[in-house]
Amino acid sequence: MELLQTINSPADLRRLPLDLLPQVAAEIRQYIIETMSRVGGHTGASLGAIELAVALHYAFDTPVDRLVWDVGHQAYAHKILTARRDQLATIKQYGGLSGFLKREESEYDTFGAGHASTSISAALGMAKARDIQKESHHVCAIIGDASLPGGMAMEAINQAGHLKTRLIVLLNDNEMSIAPAVGALTGYLNRIREAQSYHRFKDEVGETLLSVPSLGERLHHAAKTVKDALAAAVLPGALVNELGFKYIGYVDGHNPRALVAALREAQQVTDGPVLVHALTVKGKGYAPAEKNRYKWHASGPFDIATGKGLKSASNASAYTAVFGETLCELMAKDERIVALTDGTGVDLALEKFPERSFDVGIAEQHAVTFSAGLACEGLKPVAAIYSTFLQRGFDQVMHDVCLQNLNVTFALDRAGIVGGDGPTHHGLLDIAYLRPLPNMIAMAPKDEAELRDMLLTAIEHTGPAAIRYPRGNGVGVPIDRAPQLLEIGKGEILRDGGSRSDRAACEVAIIAYGSMVYPSLKAAEHLAADKIEATVVNARFVKPLDAELLLALARNVRLLVTVEEAYLAGGFGAAVMELLEENGLQDRVRVVRMGVPDRFVTHGDAKLLLAKYGLDADGIYTRVKENIELLDHRRARRHKAIQT
Ligand SMILES: Cc1ncc(C[n+]2csc(CCOP(=O)(O)OP(=O)(O)O)c2C)c(N)n1
What we know:
seven-stranded mixed sheet, globular, single chain, 17 strands, 14% strand
């Protein structure tokens, strides 16, 4: 840390001679490994982009020149170089550094990120704004090879080639997404890598021909025509050139000197966009991470010597794993079930049923419409996509799936508060964006066993269906029984607290959706200790709602509390309110909706964040208690008024 200690801003870095940059990179690498071993984070991705960050801040006059990182998960070295070194250990924790990029966090984070494939669009916008405002700084987007084929990045390249705006795109090509990158464009990038050896061969042949005495020049000229035709077929960047970009590459992405030279060359291009192609290794410099690049994309805390994770495993299975295993069980029985996409438990299906499983890459919109196409032909696609990323495919869900009432199952992993990844990754919107879509049915399991039932139910249902389930482990219930079909639109009463007619203390029903069922049951136990008997309902479906059950409860209780791990606006509670209003019961019962209010939720420990919004047993208990007391108080006042 000798050198790194002296670098408190990119300006400090730029004062160093070029030949000290490898040492800076080495110190950053050590610091990232040491810090991540304690707190965890996007270890592999960030280790692969250290020299890129060093070279970028060295070659560019940041923050005047704008660096626009895609996703931002790989930008830890950038954070270290931009005055956030000492806070690195707080990354992803409540009140600490964001795991991605955030404009409020630093003037060097020119554009907020977390979702992939945004950088070229944003950078192009900044470049155009610079031109319009007659400024002269550079704008450079840094994008990974797996984010490059994302629809929006392609759309941006298309416009950049057309606008001929001065813009630099640095491609961080490590052949990896989280898993190995897939797709035809990846194939193209791989061919560029392979072409490296062809070009060496080509140069060697040229030199050999030139060295033939007297005939050399002529032989060389004759060979050139053939060579050029050949070269065009494999020339690095031929496609990039066709799209209106200049191409500089390939550069060793771990050689700061070569990178700085390439970036300076790119800065000289004034008549349009230029792509600098850097070849990097994910996990570079830490053997366990280089060896298993998939696993080390992100990591928890680990033992540096062995690379072994330090967190003790829970006994309960992760929802993602239960989903993946159940999907495979069902695929084994029904050949019409097809699965997509990777990183969401589908890895198992990709292994077991490769002919019926697809990793479509970072392409959520395509994933949805591709599923629609599969469904048109009688197959039963299960599209597993994080709740936050399906936001990308909203129009496709509406236009291509729901409007045609196609049989597609959406498995929305990481629905709810996800924790350290924060506001870009919380899955709080899916209820609101799926619920208004005609033909869609939407459900959420209370535990991992019910997830299995719901997967079967959704696949067997004719038409679009969505299941949301949280990040992390289930509640630890047995999952050995075969999945069972659930009745669509039916909830279950898990605890019967009696009703108004009982004249008992019970007058409250807690209607919980998905992950909030068990905390609601626990809250009900606490309430019972206070002589408040609550009915607890596992709603199971937000669409269609169990109208019969909910309306009966609304007629029989004084207080109806809805609980969901989602935004209140348009959410489960809103659906219940609509149902009451449609049935003229809105004035009959006091309704309290518990969920996430209208603001972005920061990053941090998920339990802590849930508690902050009252979405745990204590919070539910307190909210019910307060409202019962309020109702009692009003009742007492009414009695008093009648008596006087
Ligand atoms: C729209 C969207 N879909 C999925 C993800 C999840 N995700 C985060 S990083 C990543 C891999 C990105 O690969 P690449 O851009 O090549 O960067 P690398 O990690 O290899 O450096 C993925 C799929 C995301 N952030 N955004």
